[in-house]
Amino acid sequence: MDAECLFCRIASGKTDTEFLHETDHLVVFRDIHPHAPVHLLIVPKRHIRSINDVKDSDREILGDLIMTAKEMARRFGIHASGYKLLFNVEKGGGQVIFHLHLHLMGGWQR
Question: Which among 25, 33, 99, 101 is annotated as catalytic?
Answer without folding.
Answer: 101
